[in-house]
Amino acid sequence: MPDVHIFSVSALTAAVKHSLEGAFPFVWVRGQVSNLSRPASGHIYFSLKDESCSLAAVWFKGSRKAEEHFDPLTGEVYEDGPRPNPALRLENGQEVICAGRLTVYGARGLYQIVVEICASGGRGRLHEEFEHLRIRLSGLGYFSLDRKRSLPENPRRVAVVTAPGGAAVHDFLRIAEGRGLASFIRIFPIPVQGENAPPKILAAMQRIFVEKWAEVLVLIRGGGSAEDLWAFNDERVAAAVFDAPIPVLAGIGHEVDVTLADMTADVRAATPSHAAQLLWPSREELSRRAAFFEHRLLQAEKRYMEGLRLRLAELLRDLDWRSPRRLLDGFRERLASGLRLLYSAGKLALERKSARLETCLSALSAAPQSIKPGKERVLYLEERLIQAGRCVLAARHAELDLTAAALARAPLRIPAVSSLDSVERRLSVQGRQRLLDAGHILEHAALRLEARNPHAPLERGYALVRRHDGGFVTSMADTSPGDVLRVTVRDGDIPVRVEEAHES
Amino acid sequence: MTKKQNGSFEQQMQRLQEIVQELEHTDIPLERNVALYKEGRELVRSCKELLERAQHEIRLSAEEGGDDVPFAPVRDDDAARM
Asked: Which of A35-49, A139-153, A286-300, B63-77 has the lowest mean pLDDT?
């Protein structure tokens, strides 16, 4: 056996370490991150891999700054301010470029790169795959807007394809609680990641389409890495969404995540919660709508009724205007005014009559005073008439005597008997005529005298009252109690004694 | 719900809207007005009732052939903590 140098493990490891670390003091390497682990120590462990090989990597806490002020690869200073360290965003599947030393970790017998600088290495493999598929499906018209259907309004039968234990269904149902109206929601359970996920998703969707129960299909999944969401970038899933006979609503991952299933879906929601919001109107909104119509209903009814009331009031006024009662009131008023006129006219007439009566009465009471002088005058005239009558008669007699005496002497001087006879005839005619005339005058005077006879009124019930000396009693002053008076009536005198006298 | 109004919430709201528009914009006889108003009030009541009782029914679809079961979401992380 030749003299062979036998290393101990430690010595060999030390030798490998020496030559390896000496040969690659600082290297740049590009790879995809996997097996990422962030233990409590703060160091980050991961693997960098490509199609065939894998390299362990460690990024110690001490060699990372919280933020970077320049690009570690190009040295370009970030003018828009420092950027957070890429370690914070490091995730599985990400393509990165790392710089550091190769070291040998003897305790585990492995070599690794101790990362000093790490930067995003541009588009990763998954991303390239995604882009490739996206372009192809876009060519097939999967994403064209004119094939997108709108969601049914306030749907009643909703099929939800998701993991039954995930955050997605939880968020979705929590939001759904306050929206829509008594819908049926059926959860179709699927695994949302892993190799198994695409065929299971496909099967669930097919079942929904065959059942024809649901109005809308909801495909949701909570947030995760690009790898986690990968099932929803599967071409078969996208095709099923594309061929869906009912509208599909997809809400996969967070706002920033976009999958091919999202893009193919009729409506894309940013998150599962958002999907519930898009699917149903909020119950408050529905309540507001109902309240809005209720308000309009009440207003319209109120206006209508007010209109009717106004019209009714108007008609009532018209009716009242033409009512028999009003007519009667009119008549009553006319009657009252007629009565008033009649009354005042009657009163006026009465006043006139009583005024005249008054005049007559006062005239009447003044009458005895005017009668008395007239009566005295009549008596006086009667006396004078009688005297005059006697004088005239005496004068006529004397004249007649003279004429008779002249006549007795006349025949001696009459030349002719014939002429004497004629004179005699004329004389006798004249004499007779004279006598006749005188008789007439006397008769007339007697008549006039008779008319003035103070005894004539006695026939009509008047009486003459004379004192014992013959004077007429015409006044209270003409007599006093105890006097004896003579009352002359139609057929005699009645002596009376004055008992007492009253002024009238 | 009365037998007169067995439509969906949307149908009832649609009918309510028609009624409101007719009441607002047309000169209609009192009898029709009263009938429409009553119907409208009934629709409002029914819609409100629907809103009050608007609980979704959530079921977990069983594998083919099985019956659905009532479903209440339990998050995996909640379950893991138990």
From this structure: B63-77
CA–CA gap between residue A432 and residue A419 (Å, rounded): 19
Instruction: Give the distance from residue A246's alpha carbon to the nearest chain B alpha carbon, in angstroms.
Output: 18
Please report residues of B whose CB lies closer than 8 A to that of A286: 9, 47, 51
Q: Is residue B1 part of a domain?
A: no
ipTM, 2 dp: 0.77
Q: Which residue, A317, A316, A449, A434, is CA-closest to A382? A: A449
Residue B26 belongs to a domain: yes
What are phi and psi for residue A434, nearest 5 degrees? -60, -45
Residues 6+ apart with CB under 8 A from B40: A293, A297, A301, B16, B19, B20, B23
pTM for the complete prediction? 0.48
Question: Is the CB of residue A251 less than 8 Å from the CB of residue A274?
Answer: yes
Q: Write out pLDDT tens, residues A401-443.
A: 888 888 777 655 555 566 667 777 888 888 888 888 888 888 8
The total domain count for chain B is: 1
Nearest by CB to residue A181, choosing from B37, B51, B71, is B51
Residue A107 CA to residue B3 CA, distance in Å, equals 83
Topology at the third CATH level for domain A9-122: OB fold (Dihydrolipoamide Acetyltransferase, E2P) (2.40.50)
- The sign of the dihedral angle between the CA atoms of A262, A265, A266, A272 is negative
Does residue A102 sit in helix, strand or coil? strand
Top CATH class, A127-281: alpha beta
Q: Is residue B2 part of a domain?
A: no
